[in-house]
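Entry 14. Two folds queued back to back today. First construct below, sequence then structure tokens.
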Amino acid sequence: MSLLKASVKSHLRNDNFDLEIYFFTAIAKHRNIDSQNRHKTYINALKKSGVKLVLGEFKEKYIAPCIDCKQKLPSEKILKHEEKHTDVNIAITLLEKAMTNNFDRAYLLSGDSDYVPVVKRVKELYPQKEIIICPPPQKNYCVHSLVQASGENDFFRFRWNTIKHFQFPNEYEDYKNPWLL
């Protein structure tokens, strides 16, 4: 059983069901090769543990410098990288899984209010489907609109000690923790 699956099941009352885990990410090819390799190692360990991977990408974006920026002239642009497709991939997958009746209850591990429209739409089309919001363990992370869209009365927040408990061991299958190398 994958560690993410074990972590989610540890919070559930009944574990007599199939649990599919999807991980949505994008590899930051603009970062150094060590950073990319650590991310790829984590992704491969997730896949090996049964997690389904959906990849987005990063796109280059030029922006104007802020008014107070002393390093650039107002006419010069600053290169930024913006993650693309991840939010859309999550929304499409949630809607697709609802439409094909692949879940009774979905756990959305996010607190991002960008998911309000898709959660509302799934609940409008399939009111019997439960969507449980699971924001990250950050203080002051407001999830009111997302929880309200889900139609649920509550949410559960993963705690840091739970995340630490279910993290991959330093050696998993044929993967080694790249931070220790």
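Second construct, same run, same settings:
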Amino acid sequence: MENQITIREAVMENDVAAFWEQLHAYHRRDIFPGSDGEELGYFLSPEYHDHMMKIHSRPQDRCFFLFFQRDGQDIGFAMPVIFTSEDGRCFIMEYCVYPEFRGNGTGRECAGALLNWAKENGALYAELHYGGDERRRRFWKAVGFVENGADERGRPLMILPPAEDIPVTVEILADPDDRQLRKLENGFLKEIGEQPATEEKQEQLAQAIRDGKIAFFVAKRGCRAVGMCSAAKCFSTFACTDAGVFDDFYIEPAFRRKGIARMLAQAAQKWSEENALASLTVTCAPCDEGMYQALGFDTNLGKTFAYLS
């Protein structure tokens, strides 16, 4: 059909070489314009090339090198990874329509073709990071994506939410170095207006978990962590025994209003009872009081004041 967007995979050696040529041009022109800095250098480096080629060549959950075509002519490219061994997430690593073909809805048509291709190849939903670029955010929002926290490096994420409902379970975090915990923590920090956690702070948190100072409860949709909360032990001189503090309460925006908040709160409360804690308290803003009361935190202990050193 004339003017229809189609997708072809770069398979032959010359096609793969052409893909890398366009990818490098895209990084120079669209992502790091006028820059010769360290970050651009990484994306142009043999290290990055070799890393992506390994992902491209692996037998499962591999990266695809795709070209968008119209009337037999290449007009752009995409680099998605489909995690079929996990929960069917298609992560769009790179997406570009060549400058001379932009406008008149071509970008949205290419995005639609990519999402259809991903579904045909086993994807159940799609995710990407937009680098905080407002133009990209507006573009993907128009396609149907919504903002959804941040990744483990603090880069803002968007998601085209899955249509399928998968049972959610809650478990105590077993691995203090879990990448998904770092991802959720950065989403939580982004939502409350804080900067992403530094590597030093991430290691301090992991060490606190190893030392048993804090326990994290993670809500998982299949194998994807979509929410968390924590409980930290402290000694109560009032009760003369251990008490607990409830914190780090966060659910990715795309997965809210599905009962996950109650599941997390109940898991922490049950853990508190099993560990014979005198109480489990939470400090919150006035606007959140009703929510926490509905989740079982219904004993008012007055206001909390803090001195921050």
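Quick look at the second one. The chain is about 35% helix and 25% strand. The longest strand covers residues 224-236.
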